[in-house]
Amino acid sequence: MAGLSLCLTFLIVFTWLSSSSALQYTVGNSYWFIPPSRDFFTNWSASHSFHIGDTLFFDFNSGTHNVMQVSKREYDACTFVNPFRTFSLGPAIVELMEEGVFYFICGVPNHCALGQKLSVTVQKRSSENTPSSPLSPSSQPDSPSVITPESQPPVPTAVPEDKGDSADGHFISMEYVWFLLATACGLFLKR
User: Fold this and answer.
1) Collapsing DSSP states into helix, strand and coil, what is residue 153?
2) Which entry of 6, 161, 162, 176 is 20 to 30 Å from 68 by CA?
3) How far, in Å, are 5, 30, 129 from residue 69 at the CA level?
4) CB 60 within 8 A of CB 66
5) Could you tell me the end-to-end alpha-carbon distance of the chain, in angstroms, rounded to an integer?
């Protein structure tokens, strides 16, 4: 009986923790691709409010595209001499862990120049602007905060530090965590 109570407690706490208001955005509402116009991803990003805890889902086939998180300078010039993070295996999920402006490009030659680049401004979530209700015009900031290359840390905490090809942009999904938790409770209760 104590095992059942413990499992139920874990499930309730996990449910409460996972019911945050974070959202996952599929970049471009479609695939990460060479867009029909150079401002396609800029317009897409401008139509969303991104908050700490949200995730970006870059849907692409490995070998065709990639995602590189870069500085503003590299984003503007479509270069990637010192990317903060590279996702070669698709699809890739990037968790937005702090406030600021973050820049992503495709490192395949000429793709960025053709518009396959994205910048997102991440804000703190407040009780007034939930994911289902974007910021009202009166509460929009006058200008987005910009992290300059000089003030930006060597590896931003918007994504975990790359540990090599094994991590390569793949993260554990909430469904998998639920599966592991349910399996652990089931095994625990059988004892």
Assistant:
1) coil
2) 176
3) 44, 19, 27
4) yes
5) 11
Strand order in the sheet with 24-26: 24-26, 55-58, 92-95
Q: How far is CA 148 from CA 67, 74, 111, 182, in A?
A: 20, 11, 24, 44
pTM confidence score = 0.60
Name beta bridge partners: 25.
56
Enter the DSSP assignment of 179: H
The first and second tokens of residue 4, run together, are 């059942």
- d(CA 5, CA 66) in angstroms, rounded, equals 46
For residue 72, with 0-12 CB atoms within 10 Å meaning exposed, 13-18 middle and 19 or more buried, which class applies? middle
What's the rounded Cα separation, in Å, for the pair 178 and 64?
32
pLDDT per residue as tens, the chain (191 positions): 566 555 545 544 444 444 457 999 999 999 999 999 999 999 999 999 999 999 999 999 999 999 999 999 999 999 999 999 999 999 999 999 999 999 999 999 999 999 999 999 999 987 544 444 343 333 333 333 333 333 333 333 343 333 333 233 333 444 445 555 566 666 666 66
- Main-chain phi, psi angles of 122, to 5 degrees: -105, 130
Run of H or E including 104: strand 100-105
